[in-house]
Design a protein that fits this description.
The chain has 453 residues and is of the alpha+beta class. The chain is built from 15 helices and 21 strands. It comes from Chitinophaga rhizophila.
Length: 453
């Protein structure tokens, strides 16, 4: 059986001195204040992959989002009504605005959620926008490196690398602001729309954490600027389209909490006028809709992609269809959707197309027939759900309590920022939950991935 250390198991386990704790206690190490109360456990052990695996993840995280951008044109032929019916519950005004935003070709960060199966990596989701999580774990990298001799020995330090997701993202952000605002000179200010639910101390910790990263990239670009936080409604547009917080000009707006902070007319107008970089515009939820996986497969099966891209999609995206009444084809045979769901229960997953943190994800093999039927009713009554073939993770040995190495299931979160691979982190569970969902919010342990060169 594979371990999370792959071919480096002996290197790491023979060099461990003393009783290494299973997870990192943030209070015992110098981690940013923002992560002192990090709510998810972070493994003291790394995950180690080889260069070929890293290169495969690199290609997936940079190429699949590019293909995703083709869905409105290749599948919907940019038809406003069809787009509105599919993504915006028939609201053609929203459909028109969504397509308008999409066609501005604003680069947006992404995170692929994958499993590694007997047949290779399978992409379960493509998450888009500022609010994608997982980047926080990078702040524990120096701690993990200090705990393992193979990572700190002078002779081998360069042999194990972990892409700095946070820095890659901030560099991507600064680059895209400059691309959006080519006349920008001297100053670049970034506004994080985070609402008013947090304490003043938490707000300051977030601002300081982000601003420290930003200052490094601004210095490299020979710019000055700062990070500001608040409610998005506090931003106001000037007559020339520039956006301001009080008397401070704003050049980018990032929405970390899309459930409470939505784009206001002032922010939207400034974006349309090309005055700000706004990755969380109305076109981004279109790209992040999980039903797009089924559309990508449909485009590939219709030979609308070149052969290499077609092969990439069909190899790495599992069979996926929207949960809708009607006929579907599964492994070459046609079924009524309800018939298929009953017949292949243990091979299928029902999940919300815009869900997060493992919510409204139903894995057939872990549910009773009654629970599975209830999931189907929920999906059909509410709409916006997908049916996906189960892509079960291989078992990987990883430490559990008392440093006993036991089988774990892994979900890989791989980041892509335009043409830049942003690294990968994993969530791993030594036992499936009652629903078979592996997610930090449902008890999985997080870990940083290193590449062995």
């Amino acid at each position: 059986m594979n371990s999370i250390l792959f071919g480096k198991y002996d290197d790491f386990t023979t060099d461990v001195s003393g009783e290494l704790p299973l997870c990192i206690n943030p209070d015992h190490y110098d981690v940013p204040s923002i992560l002192r109360n990090y709510e998810y456990p972070v493994s003291s052990w790394p995950v180690v992959i080889d260069s070929a695996t890293a290169e495969e993840l690199n290609h997936l995280t940079t190429r699949l989002p590019q293909l995703l951008r083709l869905v409105p044109s290749l599948y919907f032929n940019n038809d406003i009504k069809r787009l509105a019916d599919y993504y915006f519950k028939g609201d053609e005004m929203l459909g028109q605005i969504g397509l308008l935003c999409h066609n501005k070709n604003i680069e947006v960060g992404c995170r692929l959620d994958l499993t590694l199966t007997n047949d290779g990596f399978r992409v379960l989701e493509i998450n888009m926008g500022t609010s994608i999580g997982g980047w926080q774990v990078q702040s524990f990298e120096s701690v993990i490196r200090s705990l393992h001799a193979p990572l700190v020995k002078d002779t081998t330090a360069a042999a194990f690398t972990a892409p700095n997701t946070q820095r890659i993202y901030i560099r991507f952000l600064v680059s895209n602001i400059m691309k959006q605002l080519p006349a920008l000179q001297g100053t670049m200010n970034v506004f994080i729309a985070i609402g008013n639910d947090l304490s003043a101390e938490d707000n300051e910790n977030i601002r300081a954490f982000f601003d420290e990263l930003l200052q490094k990239e601004l210095a490299d670009a020979r710019l000055k600027g700062r990070t500001l936080l608040g409610e998005i409604a506090s931003l106001k547009i000037k007559l020339n389209g520039d956006l301001y917080l009080g008397d401070v000009p704003i050049h980018s707006v990032l929405i970390f909490n899309p459930l409470t902070e939505v784009v206001t007319p002032d922010v939207f107008r400034s974006f349309l006028l090309g005055k700000i970089y706004l990755p969380d515009h109305l076109g981004t939820p279109m790209l992040g809709d999980k039903r797009n996986l089924s559309l990508l497969r449909a485009i590939a099966e219709k030979d609308l992609l070149d052969p290499a891209d077609k092969a990439l999609v069909l190899k790495h995206i599992p069979w996926t269809v929207p949960v809708e009444e009607g006929q579907v084809t599964f492994h070459g045979q046609t079924y009524d959707l309800r018939e298929l769901i009953q017949r292949e229960k243990d091979q299928l997953v029902i999940k919300a197309a815009n869900g997060f943190q493992g919510k409204n994800v139903f894995v057939g093999k872990f549910l009773t027939t009654e629970e599975w039927n209830q999931a189907l009713v929920l999906a059909l009554d509410n709409g916006g759900f997908i049916l996906q073939e189960l892509s079960e993770s291989l078992d990987f040995l990883a430490p559990a309590a008392a440093n006993q190495w036991v089988p774990h299931k892994l979900i890989w979160g791989a980041f892509g920022y335009g043409n830049n691979y942003g690294g990968v982190w994993v969530r791993m569970s030594s036992r499936q939950t009652g629903q078979g969902v592996i997610n930090s919010a449902t008890g999985a342990v997080e870990a940083i991935v290193y590449e062995s060169r």
